[in-house]
Here is the input.
Amino acid sequence: MKPGKHVLIQVPKGDLDALLRVDAEASRLGGQCADMYFQEINITGQWVEANVAGGLRFQAQEVANDSPTWMSFGQVQMKVAHGRTQQGIKYLNFYVKHLAHTGFAVGGLLGEDDHREEARPSKACAQHTSLVTFS
Here is the structure.
């Protein structure tokens, strides 16, 4: 519900020198408050650097790979797929498997970290209901 940069995965949880870290930039695109889409995904960390110097960066506006493949980093598998809404908005989908097999506590929104702040709608998007009783 909140636009901005969010940590999706951090292995180990809370470790600044992460083995694996996935950050995503979410943007509200479209007329509805729920029209939140990933526009950029960065995958970094020691496990990633062992295979790809500098990590991986995906952008929704880039040319889409029609058949994304699963990538393995440590015990974790993930893939990023390009999508497009019927209105033509380009976005990224993120898929991950085997987070429980890392042998570490996993942080981030897809791990054990608290996500209440990111799930709370902005004031402009919050729906309020007034209950009035009449006698």
Notes: Strands lie at 4-11, 20-28, 36-44, 56-59, 71-73, 76-84, 90-97. The helical segments are 46-49, 116-119. The mean pLDDT is 86. The chain has one domain: 4-119.
